[in-house]
Amino acid sequence: MADKRIRTNTIALAIIKTLAFSTLFILVFLIGYLTFKGLVKDAITISPYKESKDQVVSVFSGDSHIKRMSWEQVRDILDGKIYSMRSVSGYDDDIQLFVDRSSLPVIAEYFALSEASIAETAKVVEFGDKGIARANGSLFIAKTSQGKASGLSRVELSATVVAVNKTVTTLVNNKKVGIVDALDIDRLENGSIMNWSDLNGSDLRVVRCTSFEQLFQTEGGYFVTEANLAYSHSDVELLSIRSTHMEKNLTLRFMASSAIQGGKYGGIGSIIVNTFFMILLSILFAAPVGLGAAIYLSLYAHKGKLLFIIQSGIDLLASVPSIIFGLFGLLVFVQTFGWSFSLISGSLTIALMICPTIIRTSQEAIKSVDASLFDGSIALGATKIETILKISIPNAREGIIGGIILAIGRAAGETAALLYTIGSGTEVANGLFSPARSLAMHIYLTVSEGRGLDGAFAASLVLMVIVLITNRIARLFSRKELR
């Protein structure tokens, strides 16, 4: 009998440990994955250009985060077609373009432009000129033989293209070569790929060509060359090449910059500010109401049916899905009061949602105060309100503050209640009736609108840190209260 009890106890302990470690593993994996994806990203580019081994021209940038640019991007900048670094760096910096004077003929030939047109777009300076801007948006172009420009970061120029015969990209039997990986180009070069069918193309033998004339006459032919040479042949077919690079995702600049075009470009600085505005307003509305209700229910209300109904109502509100509060806010604040989708509408909706949390935590904190302190104060001649303000509230302070901070954490991570109330403005709200966007809502909209997962993961990491910090502070206050 004893052995059976020991075996049962051992099995039960093993099950408990397995469940505990499984839960711990899931939490660590989830937090670790979100942290990793928030900090780094796979930058995927699909273009006809691949990295060049021997660069005739070098490009230098004042923004150290810009690692690579394509030949076409640099040409369009030199030609005056691109005025902002938005499509290159993701940030709306005005381009300040500088060109080395002695390199001007080489640059003009390399990018198939005239020296005069480049001189109109760029400021022509001497190499090493101290007047070259060292700021975000500044670009300096010179021939590679000039060496490295001081104070600027070298940008990797993708200027190699893979030209192919039209038979390679022609649809035959529902097959054609589409997007190929950069590694596949290396395999083409070293002879590992012998037939275009290996790249989902038609059954054609791969033939390496050494000139455009040979390429145009050879079925299945390809020719690896420089972009400036291919540019002069308008009828040439170029393969689309997929390149993947690991880059930083969450940076200080991303956290400080304002969102552009609904979060497609820029950072989350303005959205973080709006999130704190929303939290501040929500707490300003909810904390006095919640604390007042907790004082009444704990120290004034008499036990009975009415108190039971009120307490049940508070518990019910605490468990109501947040989308219901959002619909209420839409009907009352947005439509009835005519405040439209604005910061005040969203903040009041969140205030209603977090009120039950503040009420319940404040109630428990007030009830935990030793009753003898309250009775002793009354016995010494203090009024009830004086006793509440000078005895009950100060002694329950840690628990009350902990509950408010817990409510802040819930408000920061709320999405559904704000969908119908706060709007989606990405600029810093300039008034109570301006539309805004919180971090949680920004994450939802970024993903649902297909604006990329990288920015959503970076914003998720910031939001997760904010919520973890608020919850940690709330736990610290709760421990102080228990002491």
From TrEMBL:
Residues 272-474 form the ABC transmembrane type-1 domain. It is found in: Cell membrane. Keywords: Cell membrane, Membrane, Transmembrane, Transmembrane helix, Transport. The chain crosses the membrane at residues 12-36, 276-299, 306-333, 339-359, 400-422, 455-474. It is a multi-pass membrane protein. One of its GO terms (cellular component) is plasma membrane. InterPro entries: MetI-like, MetI-like_sf, Phosphate_PstA. GO terms for biological process: phosphate ion transmembrane transport. GO terms for molecular function: phosphate transmembrane transporter activity. Belongs to the binding-protein-dependent transport system permease family. CysTW subfamily. This is Phosphate transport system permease protein PstA.
